[in-house]
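Quick illustration, no need to memorize.
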Amino acid sequence: MKVTDPIADFLTRIRNAQKANHRIVEVPASNMKKRLTEILYEHGFIFRYKFEEEGPQGTIKIALKYDPVTKSPAIKGLTRVSKPGLRKYAGVGEMPRVLSGLGLAIVSTSKGVMTEKEAKRQNVGGEVLCYVY
């Protein structure tokens, strides 16, 4: 099946797996999705991940993180910002802040995919891919 927006598909698979209380979700791999997964792991939104190089594309296995007491997911919201039909760009001065700095905005820049804080530190702007909180 051809997916027109692979990043939205990635975010939707994670969102749906959490709503169904799944522990692991499998996503078709790409370099962009691998970097998004690494950022989610670095900031504590997912428990663990594993890249598997099976077949032509490979897959990413993501172990989702839940609160041990309340069983609520660590990711409260995943929102796609820039869509194929309407791209959203932000310069260094107008980088978005998600929940007053408690969430993340993930940005695709000329220096790679990174969080908005890292983009400000490196003084680069780019396409705002998604919000995570």
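The chain has a mean pLDDT of 95.
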